Amino acid sequence: MPTAASSTEALARSVADVGHLVRFRATRSGGRSARRAWVVLAALTLAALVVPLYLPGARTGARAFDVLLILPTAMAGVLLLATVAAVTTGGGRELLPREQAVAYPVSPTTDHLGALLLAPLNIAWLLQAWVLVGCTSYALGWQICLSAQPGILLWLVVATAAAQAAAWLVEGVRRYRHGIAVVRGTGLVLVGGAVAIQLTAGWGALVDRMPTVWLTVGLIGGFSWRWALTVVVELALVLVLVAIGAAAAHWADRRMPRDELRTETGTFVARPTPRTDLVLLVRLDWSSVWRTVPMRRGLATLAVAPGLMALAAQLPWTTIPVLAALSTAGGALLFGVNAWCLDGRGALWRASLPVGPEVVFAARSLVLGAMLLGASGVTIGLAALTAAAPTSAELAAVVATWLVVGLQVVSASMRWSGRHPYAVDLRSARATPAPPVAMVGYSARLAVSTTLTASFFSALAHLPDPRTSIAFALPFLCWSGLRLVRAQHRWCDPVLRARVIATVAA
Amino acid sequence: MHESSGPVVVVRGLRVRFGEVEAVAGIDLTAYAGQATALLGRNGAGKSTTMRVLAGVLPPTEGAALVAGHDLRTHSLAARQATGYCPDVGGLVPRATPWEHLQLAARLRRLDDWEDRGRDLLERFELGDVAHRVTAGFSHGMGRRLSVVLAALHRPAVLLLDEPFDGVDPVGVEATLEVVADARADGACVLVSTHLRELAVEACSTALVLRGGSEVAQLSAAEMAGEEGARAYRSLLD
Description:
The complex is a heterodimer of chains A (506) and B (238).
Chain A: H1 2-28, H2 31-50, H3 62-88, H4 98-101, H5 108-118, H6 123-174, H7 179-199, H8 203-208, H9 211-219, H10 225-253, H11 258-265, H12 277-290, H13 293-313, H14 320-332, H15 347-351, H16 357-386, H17 392-419, H18 436-460, H19 467-492, H20 494-504
Chain B: E1 7-18, E2 21-32, E3 36-41, H1 47-54, E4 62-67, E5 70-71, H2 76-82, E6 83-86, H3 98-108, H4 115-124, H5 140-152, E7 158-162, H6 170-185, E8 189-193, H7 197-203, E9 206-211, E10 214-220, H8 221-224, H9 226-237
Parallel strand pairs in B: 3-8, 3-9, 6-7, 7-8
Antiparallel strand pairs in B: 1-2, 1-4, 4-5, 9-10
Helix pairs in contact in B: 5-6
């Protein structure tokens, strides 16, 4: 019966369609900047693979052995965060935005494969992948690395496929009656379970029993039958999980996205008119952020997930700045890097209103800043719950990082928003504010700059005098503030502003 | 015609270029208070670009444009105070409600006691029931109707309606024609850009036909009416 044949044909067609869509997206992505983004990405990946091999103590030191011991946990961490990211985005990123895809026969399998392909193009996935690969290199050294790294890279594919399958299943449930409540309830139960394990100090026993231990043992012994078996198991897992994901994508596709529809058909009570233009503009922009499904979900995840991880790992205060910085950088990727897209096609009408462009700029920057500082503030707050009482130097370093990175990211976002606007519809939970390749560039740049800044202040936290962090924060703040003012001047230029508005409203 | 009251919109030698593309290639236009002028032409004729310039959204590359006595190059903010603009695409903030749109327009124009007129306009355009829902869930026609409401809220001296009839049902068309008539009666200068010749004839007293970014003819509504008018219009498009 043609069923098997037609399934194979459908799969082959979906794979071919992914190729067509990738080429279609590639032609619309900026040539030079896209190439630069890929080069940066490749360079960072290569650095993550090679640099740890030459670090002091690599393979032979006691620290290398410690790193080897935590490899299974790090592998599980990749799976956990990939799942959270995919579930948050309601099935992963779209290769072709929904409003454009309606004109083409794009099947859920194509959509699923496209989302799998795009999954690595986000800051959380990339950082985890680099850390995992780097830890493997550091712990095992050159010779063992040659056999272990392919297995680790395969694990990244397994984790991504598993996350994608889980995301479609959750999205399918979400689209049923009471599905949103079921998903939220399940999420709370899982968080409660994690807290209970934390309180009963049961993580150690759980970590020892994770299947990733079996995989790690298979990969670190060099080329052998055990290694081959491990790789075969990973390959089989990839195939099975991709198939499950495709089936789940078809299942979810048959139902309406309830969360998005609820926002679009819900009633929002009118509030009295505020006294100033700025307050009203801020309120309108804030409503636009909070009523957008991808931003609401993304913000909640970015604020809570890193905080919970810090809480579970009982991170020291010197590490918390890095975590908060990543939360801030991730927040900017929700809409900040293309901040003017928030108005969508309403940008033309808004531009015809009698209000100075500097007020509009200030409102958008304030909303972005509040959103980023709020998310990273929650992360810091959660991390602080299990951390020991900070010294004044540690506290100063955390506060300095929080403010410096916040302003740094707002400044960068507003500059990029003015230079590279994109017309995007943030209606779908899976939407991103810029095309995938641009998002890679933004992710890499934000990851590097914020991690470096946070690491610098983390180092200052070790110094006894808290004034050192404050003294170093001032030039950082002045520099970012100056660049933000320059971005505002650019926005006030009517020709440049018209270009941005015409683009985002197209 | 109210030409004795002086022109409200004066455009001289208007050119707008986007890189190599010249969207508007030297348009002259004079429009008066109490008069409605239609901008007609094929896609890409420069109608929407001209409207965007007059709305203060897009600065002209060359030429002069005066709106309600304000030079758009130097006093864009004052000109925007005097205009009401319904853009050709969307024109609505996706995740704001109609009421929030009205609130913003009223606040930025320092309108007091605007709520009753806002409610009345929403009812006339049959949008009263959805006043507190986000516009992302609106149909195209609903969005067009709300854009006209927003343009007309503050009884502007210059009403700019870009494709206001596009995809709008008969009730919406009727309400839009009423808004245009009311604005003219109040002494406003109305500019309507549309592809629909018959509706342009019904709403306006004069029509400016554009082709390839330039003005090719200025006709009275009577000359554009009926089959004769259709033939005349068709001949101007090629």
